[in-house]
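TL;DR need structure tokens for one chain.
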Amino acid sequence: MIVYPAIDIKDGRCVRLLQGRFDDVTVYGDDPVQMASKWVSLGAKWLHIVDLDGARGEYSNNRKIILDIIKKHSVSVQTGGGIRTMEDIEQILSAGASRAILGTSAVRKPELVKEALSKYPDKIVVGIDAKDGMVAIEGWEQVSSYTAVDFAKSMEQLGCRVIIYTDIDTDGMLTGPNLKAMEEMVNSVSMEVIASGGVSSLQDLKDLKEIGASGAITGKAIYTGAIDLAEALKL
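>> reply
TL;DR here they are.
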């Protein structure tokens, strides 16, 4: 199982949101490039980077920062937030990102997912963010009419091989992941499922591995020191 340190960028800074709420922001650093260097120096082989302003459909300079991180580090990067067109996808991938994450655009424009997967089958990840089991979009501020599992199955039919499944209610809470929801998702599809939300200890990572998650994203836990990233990667 791969551990993905998360770097969420808002207004050019490294932040964490509580349960995805934009009015509950903690700033962990003014330099996301430096933060990326820190996680890489501790042994991270992957980085999970999100443009929070882009996720809300707002213009920002965050993408330039993300491209700087990709250029500076030789590790694999998966990135999302505001990726809504083939041009966006091509810009990110041609800059050296390993994966582009489609979230809101996957719900609104399944034809984009289809086109992207036909061109880059191994480089497209669909991010499924769930609130009470329903898919949330637009930076988690709206809830769609799809259940997370049904939506995942529809993405699998389009040829998607990897999804990131976030449980919004546990995100940033350090209360442990929603193992029941994660296990249901893992058992419902044959895609790789990367778990996100609530990871607060090495035990949580072990539990996610046990239910069959192919990866786990950790944000607040490594920023607060609840998880020692070097130890988690060793594990």
